[in-house]
């Protein structure tokens, strides 16, 4: 019967402990560290309305819940070919063809707008949606203000 020399047992123990430590280190490195983002809620405002002849809208999100003031930025998507802007509030002028503004009896347009709130590290915190209606007529037509918040 062959027995291992005594000096091999500490070496085996060392390799075993090092393997466990390395495995634990690798597992830890694969797990995202840090605290989860706080539960935040925002409201995109609206629905917004503007006449076709003056299609400029001022968007203003409201913070409904933000424990610890985590929100650092807002990004708006205006619902038109990926156009957007950073900030809050923001103003956007929708592009309308001249023939649409001349045709006061024509149909309006409706866009879905989204605002995303992020923390200082760029992590997503919350999003909200609203609509913009561009209606035929002028601001003085009595149907709505030019810009609503």
CATH architectural arrangement of the domain at 41-141: Sandwich
Strand residue percentage? 25-35%
User: What is the CATH topology assignment of the domain at 41-141?
Assistant: Immunoglobulin-like
Reading side by side through the largest sheet, how are the strands ordered? 2-9-8-5-6
What is the first-to-last residue Cα distance? Answer: 89 Å
DSSP summary, beta strand count? 9
User: Regarding CATH, which class of the domain at 41-141?
Assistant: Mainly Beta
Number of helices, where a helix is a run of at least 4 consecutive DSSP H or I residues: 2
CATH-assigned homologous superfamily of the domain at 41-141: Immunoglobulins
Shape: elongated
* Order of helical and strand elements: HEEEEEEEHEE
Q: Rg to the nearest angstrom?
A: 29 Å
Structural class: alpha+beta
Helix content: 10-25%
Q: Which segments are poorly predicted (pLDDT under 50) over 5 or more consecutive residues?
A: 25-32, 140-149
User: What does the largest sheet look like?
Assistant: 5 strands, mixed
Average pLDDT, all residues: 77
């Amino acid at each position: 019967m062959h027995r291992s020399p005594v000096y091999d047992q500490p070496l085996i123990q060392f390799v075993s402990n090092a393997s466990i430590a390395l495995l634990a280190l690798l597992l830890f490195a694969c797990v995202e560290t840090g605290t989860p983002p706080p539960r935040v809620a925002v409201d995109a405002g609206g629905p917004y309305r503007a006449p076709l002849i003056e299609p400029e809208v001022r968007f203003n999100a409201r913070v409904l819940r933000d424990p610890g003031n985590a929100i650092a930025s807002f990004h708006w998507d205006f619902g038109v070919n990926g156009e957007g802007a950073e900030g809050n509030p923001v103003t956007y002028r929708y592009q309308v063809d001249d023939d649409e503004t001349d045709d006061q009896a024509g149909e309006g347009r409706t866009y879905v707008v989204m605002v995303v709130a992020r923390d200082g590290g760029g992590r997503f915190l919350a999003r909200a949606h609203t609509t913009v209606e561009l209606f035929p007529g002028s601001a003085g037509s009595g149907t709505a203000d030019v810009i609503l918040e």
